[in-house]
Specification:
This protein is about 80% helix and about 0% strand. By secondary structure, the protein is an all-alpha fold.
Length: about 60
């Protein structure tokens, strides 16, 4: 009987003792936002480069 009770009373330990599940979720959200912002910045740079190269090729043709 004592063994049966003890089996259900053991608390699960986190993988890292200093981390909690809530902290892990906040960290995941932080990284997701960081990655999304980085992808947007890359896309903006790509668009700007495309417009610049188009402008450069048009200006060479006019000269």
């Amino acid at each position: 009987m004592a063994l049966r009770k003890r089996r259900f009373c053991d608390a699960k330990q986190p993988l890292l003792p200093s981390k909690t599940y809530a902290f892990g979720m906040q960290n995941n959200r932080f990284w997701n936002v960081l990655i999304i912002n980085e992808l947007r910045n890359r896309n903006a740079c790509k668009k700007m480069f495309t417009h610049f190269s188009l402008f450069a090729s048009l200006s060479k043709g006019l000269l």
